[in-house]
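User: Fold this; tokens only.

Assistant: Input:
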Amino acid sequence: MMGSKYHLPGYRTRGTLSIFIVIGLCCFFYLLGAWQKSGFRKGDGIPLEITRQIDCNNVTILDFEAHHNDLEIIEHDEPRAKLFKPCDIQYTDYTPCQEQDRAMQFPRENMIYRERHCPPEEEKLHCLIPAPKGYVTPFPWPKSRDYVHYANVPYKHLTVEKAVQNWVQFQGDVFKFPGGGTMFPQGADAYIDELASVIPIADGTVRTALDTGCGVASWGAYLLKRNVLAMSFAPRDNHEAQVQFALERGVPAIIGVLGSINLPYPSRAFDMAQCSRCLIPWTANDGMYLMEVDRVLRPGGYWILSGPPINWKTYYQTWKRSKEDLNAEQTEIEKLAELLCWEKKYEKGDIAIWRKKVNDKSCQRNSANICSSKDADDVWYKKMGTCVTPLPEVSSKDEVAGGELKKFPARLFAVPPRIAKGSIEGVTAESYEEDNKLWKKRLNAYKRINRLIGTTRYRNVMDMNAGLGGFAAALESPKSWVMNVVPTISKNTLGVIYERGLIGMYHDWCEGFSTYPRTYDLIHASGVFSLYQNRCELEDILLEMDRILRPEGAVILRDEVDVMNKVKKIAGGMRWTIRLMDHEDGPLVPEKILVAVKQYWVGGSGNSTSSNQ
């Protein structure tokens, strides 16, 4: 039987065919495996690589080509995206809501003309703001604290006007910032050391600070190494580019002024505030400006005044004011501080320090006008009042009104008092914890897309719709800082963000932001375009993002796919290199992520970096 088996009809033919089939399948799977390992397919999750260096500008191009899943947009019969042209070179430093020509049409009383005055719809620019010729990437932090490229901010006015005060010096093709100021010509470090002898700066008790009339923000710049985050502001005035210098140095700042409307910050936001020869008339309007500082100052917080009228007996001749006038001004400030329940803790030389009481029970106000508004955080374009903002009620004299905060960095992830007390509708301690976990996961996904996130390459970061501050908290590092923007039409969570030891402001994205062009390295926005798509043109928001984004800066947007398709089409005409990608949880999630890099180009040259070069 064994012998007859090999002579069955057709058996030899079938056996030979089977062998060829097996060999063929082996070869096919071998080639398939080799192809998969080669990395030539899309969606393989390879981390972002730096693919090009432009030596003449010392800047880095990020190239997302062939590394991530690009979602195709179905165009139907719609016209192609329009290309946005560069604006005229005269608009290099254009600030839509703080332009000088428009400002001069408003009253000078109470600095109204230095407040926000945005252009009407027919006057909005629909072009791309150019960088100045020779623009280069700012120095990385911490070198940027002390040096700024002249080509980026070509204004020497302050080097002359403030020469003896050690603000800024011009050396070759860079500005040097020695760390001096009008009231600390020997340097900010020595000045802060004196403050720290009274104020608990070193142990994390003080984390958020406000600098009113900041100059080039050297106070905030030198507080950073002490883990204190200062929000600085100054008007766009004859001190050309002071806020622009601050941001170019990598220090948080906005264009702003104490005028007739509330500051864009929530109540009880700052652990410390200062005026260092800021020349704000604290006694004017029955103390209205000091009352506004009191509104944003946290219970137990500190206010520092250095400059007029402090130490007037020494400086009255230098200030060209009479002894009587200066003495009367200081006496009035002392009375206002007493009305606000601030206790004077220190006065020596040029510095005076007050501390706000921790609650209203420990304060006996006799004649103060208490504000009637039930929401001390509803401040966008609201008129400042001559009244004292009441603190939340307490049950004992030792209890901190609004809730006691942990020292930083513990407060970053501790449950904020506003959430613990149920002040934020729909947010519980549990949902807050889940939000933190979500943003840690999302940030890790972003870092897989762009490995430069979390490095000094992206120093100035903005979150356009910050929510509870989860993105900024996950990113927290000395290498960067985040401007947490809470849109005025969204849930008011900015108080929570400040209770975490982070900073930010209110803003309406239908208008221009209070900053100079080219001041942010990385812009993140979650849900912004869904929020605003029926309120204003998405084009206007994208053009504003382009204005404030530095050349070769990065953008990360996440939103519903339909909105993202619209955004991608508009942004396609803006000299951005763009990729639309799946959600980190996969293609079935309707939310998508758009990643973009702004190409390098400068005014008058037409040159740009793109994926084709």
